[in-house]
Design brief:
The complex is a heterodimer of chains A (503) and B (450). Chain A is 44% helix and 15% strand. By secondary structure, chain A is α/β, with parallel strands linked by helices. Chain B folds into two domains: 208 residues, Cytochrome Bc1 Complex, Chain A, domain 1; 193 residues, Metalloenzyme, LuxS/M16 peptidase-like (Cytochrome Bc1 Complex, Chain A, domain 1). With 450 residues, chain B is α+β, with helices and mostly antiparallel strands. In chain B, the strands form two sheets. A six-stranded mixed sheet of chain B has the order 1-2-6-3-5-4, sandwiched between helices. Chain B is globular. Classes of the chains: A alpha/beta (503), B alpha+beta (450).
């Protein structure tokens, strides 16, 4: 038992140490750190720069992501990329980057046996990058193919989810383009652009070093000294105010040859993890549609009761790659978030009905709020689920960095404490305050876009039939849902050819 | 306790040295009289327990024609209610406990997994024991669930890789159940609503203690784990069904197939050879596994040439499957331009020939072994990750010891073993090639080359 207590204390000590770190937004003399030492044989790095796609210069959308790739997926000045992959090969390590609007994080984990060699490689990749032309051509082609092929033609769900952000944030908003950029601007980016972005954004002022695991004493001081050689710079400032949004529902139908109809819907919310109402909204999203969980309300109504699709979920934070991940990746901190509902693909003949069913349930939530029993279950779930979110050492480090960004205490403790004092009326007040009826933005991906458009704007009944008998209460509810009015007029529904998306 | 946990970390820290066991944790195996096996792995990660129930039945067990996809459908049905808990009650208990749970199905196994706080263990095992022994669902519920499975097929169908694997299986296998993927044929999925009775049969055959191993990893002792499993699974009745799975005869001639994709996508080429079954005693599989890394991994010569230097390929990989029966060694490449597909295929074939003709350098082999060991060590970074990574081996041999045996075999694989395995399996008559490309008409909407 002693060992376990000791580790818990060490973890806690690491977290406390993190909170002693300076959190100011001006240039720090030494880089900020978040440290979680433990006895694990693995050492995880999360080297975070407070810059990202929101800092892409106008007309150069995709530059932040491309620059990050030139650091994580390309050579250093000393070694070519091939030499780096050779050196990493026997250690089974890798080094990857994740670029979001305001955060760019470089992550990697090594066995402590190989710490010295691994650190030497990644230090040079970040501090002394090679910026070779052939690396640039490769990562640029990959970025173009990611948008053109990966999103436009191979993953209807991610296509819909990402396009929803494009619809909610106008093109001139710092959040108004995909993290990977736009195809029209990506084509024009040059190696010189990447060098300039690196020079201006990869600075001490933007840097927070995250380190966890069984690294030796004094190791963190060496990293701080090494990264202290970056230019001081000033902290990147992004005007990421909530986007303007006209009242009323609008729908965008992406037309693409596909077997099914995928939906994503949502609207901006003025609440992030830093706000006092965030735990309340987190409870609402968990109740309505906990990610990949069969216990949530929408899942129960759409999938369990009716078998319409594979699942139906709700979010109050950006969660990319949700079809591949059960838990969200950390370090996607944003100053503006959206409330989002994700309906997994349905048969096109049920497309109109499914959207109506989702809106019917959503409107009902706004009208009735949550019950005491529903609230209690969701609250208990989240209080324990935070353990799952932070189960691995790398996740603990990621969440610690996010807490640093949002200025909140250690995440699991913060959530448990906030949830313990949360009341049903807080949650129902948050529902009334932030969830509006009728200002939804809807993105659909389907083959026959015109037919769906006609159905949506005509508001004609959309009855549903089942392969199996259904209980009377479901059939009765279906009668209401099949004619449930969606306030969409002629001008509110736009068909978008897939070739125009992310262009 | 202190000594035990310290020993765990110490051996993990020397995993790369070559002598230490690849699986660094102490584990305990307990068999109940009914045939159920319990494997307990205590760890240092606080509060949580990862429960993985591994049923040694997957799409390999779908022996009757017209029943492909049933193991996977069955996985869905396990969430649709049991004698003492309606789905709603079960969901409410899980929700209150903050449980992270799901399931997956593959060729040889179906795995049900939960991660819960250790104080909730008894309740969780009560729920699990009920559905494994007393599953109950109506015909209507069954039909509804078949709709969800069709939805899953439809959702997956946007991904060309799914289609390639489907066609590859059909091309390489004619008799064995590996001829279909776990998802199953679309025609069988569409017929599922009519197969309620067969679903009951499937449950009675395979959801039995002798097919099942319960893996408990985390903040738990052996005694706690065994007591809880005994309490909730001790009365489970042993079955007697053994599936007669057809043996696939040797392939007589090389096979080819092409898929026309309706929407714009990048072309793919897949080259596959019939391979060996999983073994932790014979060297063939271990040798091919090392070969896959060396020939097609991210620092192979071919990867360097096609992906980094010529930049004709976006993604490349090759490996042998770990399956109960012989399956495939598969190489896949995603090509950037349709005009290079033949070239890339020929490069893959030339690489295969090179490994049959020449011996790999000893230094490169040592680096690859090191990589494979560290890759496994790095994957064990939470109780759930440990359970997740051990489960496939439990599906094959019902013990984590097979991991140590396999990695010991990797250490023995010589350049000659690799060449011999290449010669044995990479014969032309053993080969299937599947390509996928956008249909000419769809391509024209993008590029205008009609």
């Amino acid at each position: 038992m002693k060992a376990r207590v000791l580790m818990a204390l060490m973890l806690l000590a690491g977290t406390v140490a993190a909170w002693a770190a300076p959190q100011g937004k001006t240039a720090a003399a030494t880089p900020q750190t978040v440290l979680l030492p433990s006895r694990s044989p693995l050492v995880s790095f999360r080297i975070l720069f407070m810059t990202g796609a929101a800092s892409d210069p106008k007309g150069k959308e995709g530059l932040a992501a491309l620059t990050a790739s030139m650091l994580s997926d390309a050579g250093s000045r000393k070694l070519t990329y091939a030499e780096i992959t050779d050196a990493m090969y026997p250690m089974a390590t890798s080094f990857t980057s994740q670029v979001d609007k305001e955060m760019t994080v470089f992550t990697g984990t090594t066995h402590v046996d190989n710490l010295e060699r691994y650190y030497g490689l990644i230090r040079d990749m970040l501090l002394d990058p090679g910026f070779r032309e052939d690396d640039f051509t490769r990562v640029k082609t990959d970025a173009i193919n990611f948008l053109k092929v990966g999103l436009r033609s191979e993953n209807d769900e991610e296509l819909g989810k990402e396009y929803l952000y494009n619809v909610i944030y106008p093109a001139d908003h710092p959040y108004g383009h995909h993290n990977a950029g736009r195809l029209s601007s990506l084509e024009k980016l040059t190696l010189e652009d990447a060098r300039a972005f690196y020079r201006d954004n990869f600075t001490r002022a933007n840097l927070v070093i995250g380190l966890s695991g069984g690294y030796p004493k004094g190791f963190e001081a060496r990293i701080v000294a090494d990264f202290g050689k970056l230019p001081a710079g000033t902290r990147t400032q992004v005007a990421a105010a909530a986007p303007p949004q006209a009242e009323g529902m609008k729908a965008y139908i992406i037309e693409r040859d596909t077997r099914s109809t995928a939906y994503s819907l949502g609207f901006p919310i003025p609440v992030t993890r830093a706000d006092k109402d965030w735990p309340a909204l987190a409870v609402v999203a968990s109740y309505l549609g906990q990610h990949r969980s069969s216990t949530s309300f929408l899942y129960q109504r759409l999938r369990e009761a009716r078998g319409l699709n594979y699942g139906d979920y709700a979010y109050v934070e950006y969660f990319p790659q949700g079809m591949f991940q059960f838990e969200p990746s950390p370090n996607l901190g944003r100053r503006s978030q959206i409330f989002q509902i994700w309906l997994r693909p349905v048969e096109p003949k049920n497309g109109h009905f499914t959207l109506r069913a989702a809106m019917y349930e959503y409107d009902k939530l706004i009208k009735d709020g949550m019950s005491e029993a529903e609230f209690e279950r969701s609250r208990q779930f989240l209080s324990k689920y935070v353990n799952v979110l932070t189960a691995s050492q790398d996740a603990q480090l990621g969440y610690a960095l996010d807490s640093h960004y949002y200025g909140i205490p250690e995440f699991t403790r913060y959530m448990r404490e906030r949830l313990a004092t949360l009341k049903l009326e807080d949650v129902n007040r948050a529902i009334a305050q932030y969830l509006k009826p009728g200002n939804m933005r809807i993105v659909a991906v389907t083959k026959d876009a015109q037919a769906l458009r006609t159905a949506l704007t005509s508001n004609a009944p959309s009855p549903i039939s089942y392969v199996s008998p259904k209980p009377q209460d479901v059939l009765d509810e279906d009668k209401v849902i099949q004619s449930y009015p969606l306030p969409l007029k002629e001008g509110d529904v736009k068909v978008v050819p897939v070739e125009e998306v992310f262009q | 306790m202190l000594a035990l946990t310290c020993a765990c970390w110490a051996s993990a820290a020397t995993a790369g040295a070559g002598q230490a066991k690849a699986f660094p944790y102490t584990y305990y195996i307990d068999d109940l009289p009914n045939g159920l096996r319990i494997i307990t792995i205590p760890t240092d990660y606080p509060n949580l327990v990862a429960y993985y129930a591994v049923v040694q039945a997957g799409s390999r067990n779908e022996v009757e024609p017209g029943k492909s996809g049933f193991a996977h459908l069955f996985e869905h049905l396990m969430f649709r209610g049991s004698k003492n808990f309606t789905p709603r009650q079960r969901d409410e208990i899980m929700q209150s406990a903050g449980v992270n749970g799901n399931a997956y199905t593959t060729d040889d196994r179906t795995v049900y997994h939960l991660v819960f706080a250790r104080e909730d263990m008894d309740k969780m095992l009560e729920l699990e024991g009920d559905r494994f022994q007393r599953l109950e669902y109506s015909r209507d519920v069954f039909k509804t669930e078949t709709g969800a499975v069709l939805g899953e097929y439809n959702k997956n169908s946007a991904n060309p890789v799914r289609k390639i694997l489907e066609v590859l299986r059909e091309t390489a296998f004619k008799k064995h159940t590996y001829s279909h993927t776990t998802m199953g044929y679309l025609r069988d999925i569409e017929d599922m609503p009519n197969q309620y009775d067969y679903s009951i049969e499937f449950y009675n055959r395979y959801y039995r203690p002798e097919y099942t191993t319960i893996l408990m990893v985390g903040d738990i002792t052996r005694a706690q784990s065994v007591a809880a499993v005994k309490k909730h699974f001790g009365e489970w009745k042993r079955g007697n069904y053994v599936a007669q799975i057809a043996t696939e005869p040797p392939q007589a001639a090389p096979q080819k197939a092409h898929i026309e994709w309706a929407t714009p996508t990048l072309p793919w080429v897949a080259v596959a050879y019939r391979g060996p079954a999983y073994s932790d005693t014979e060297k063939d599989l271990a040798a091919l596994s090392v070969l896959g890394q060396m020939a097609f991994g991210s620092n192979s010569e071919l990867y360097r040439k096609l992906v980094l230097n010529e930049q004709k390929v976006e993604a490349l990989g090759g490996d042998v499957s770990f399956r109960i029966d012989p399956e495939l060694f598969t190489v896949m490449a995603r090509v950037k331009d349709a005009k290079d597909v033949d070239y890339v295929r020929d490069q893959i074939l030339a690489t295969v020939k090179q490994f049959s003709d020449t011996l790999v350098p000893a230094g490169k082999l040592a680096a690859t072994r090191s990589r494979m060991r560290y890759e496994f060590a790095l994957s064990l970074d939470s109780s759930e990750a440990i359970a997740l990574n051990v489960a496939p081996y439990v599906g094959l041999r019902r013990t984590p010891e097979t991991i140590n045996n396999l990695y010991a075999l990797y250490d023995q694989v010589s350049p000659e073993d690799i060449r011999n395995a290449a010669r044995k399996y990479f014969a032309e008559s053993n080969r299937s090639i599947v390509t996928l490309a956008t249909k000419a008409k769809a391509a024209s909407t993008e590029g205008g080359q009609q």
